[in-house]
Amino acid sequence: MTAITTSRSRVRLFRDQHVTRLASILVVLLLFFALVRTENFFRLATWQSMAVQFPEFGLMALGVMLTMIIGGIDLSVVGIANMTAIGSATLMLSIAPTGSDSPQGYLALMAAIFFSLLVGALAGAFNGFLVAKVKIPAILVTLGTFELFTGIAVIISGGKPTSGLPPQYGEVMASRLFGVIPMPLIIFIVATMVIGVLMYKTAFGTKLYMLGSNETAAEFSGLKTTSLTIRTYMISGLLASVAGLVMLGNYNSAKADYGSTYTLLAILIVVLGGVNPNGGSGRLAGVILAVVVLQVLSSLLNTFPHISNFYRPLIWGGVLLLVIVVNQWDKRDHLARLFRWKGTTS
């Protein structure tokens, strides 16, 4: 029975137009990369560099995905990431002196991780409370809390980079499994697996789609929509705090304006991955593919020195609008085919 269910799930996955479309785009990008920048494409360092970079915004995208499935959105992920990163860095420096190689560094590391996850969860729960209890639209809540969390980060750091972390933190974040797989990629894989289990193997995941499809019907069916919304935003906050820890390790410092384009990038990834902005549908596989596609595209752009990084927001914004338009066309075509089918059967 399990084998039959698994095979059916695979068939549904490959029939998903967003997944197949993204897989096709990824193949084309990889072929183009291999032909145009052959030397860079076949270097292990190129792929390791990608594996270090994309977990930062990939983790944020996972949180945005969950909130969008329930019909909301989380624009505060970058604010949470930077606030928790600065708070964690400050905490580590208070426990272990700058440049200290003593065992205190590992104590500081553990304290920073616990602090970051706790603050991220509380920040996410605060978002969820305002959305579910106070009934403020999610886009307004998270836009406001983004500024709030960024302001807190600026106050803590004085607007300057927080650096000089204990070397133990950098060693852990720079470590590689089997000497090949970077730690940020391992963190992203573990987070993805946990989210996958929550979405597809627990009642929590089913309830997410029910809430996003029809909140009123979900309430009448007995769902505790307030609790579910708060928990969803709490998970998004947790994921953002993990992204903050990854950024802290990658840059060996924290600043309130790091990852300024990641909010747009996370939304682009989620929409490109096939999550309905109105809620109720979306696949984790599509979002993961979208993360990889955009990272490959970003790395490909990096190989062209005449294309400035200042063009990135323009490119991501244009791609986001294009994806939304294409998705709307697909939806209209699907409805038109459905009505034609009903007309022929009546």
TrEMBL record:
Pfam families: BPD_transp_2. GO terms for cellular component: plasma membrane. Its main location: membrane. It is a multi-pass membrane protein. One of its GO terms (molecular function) is transmembrane transporter activity. The chain crosses the membrane at residues 18-36, 57-86, 106-126, 138-157, 177-200, 233-252, 258-277, 284-304, 310-329. It comes from the Bacteria. InterPro entries: ABC_transp_permease. This is Monosaccharide ABC transporter membrane protein, CUT2 family. It is found in: Cell membrane. Keywords: Cell inner membrane, Cell membrane, Membrane, Transmembrane, Transmembrane helix, Transport.
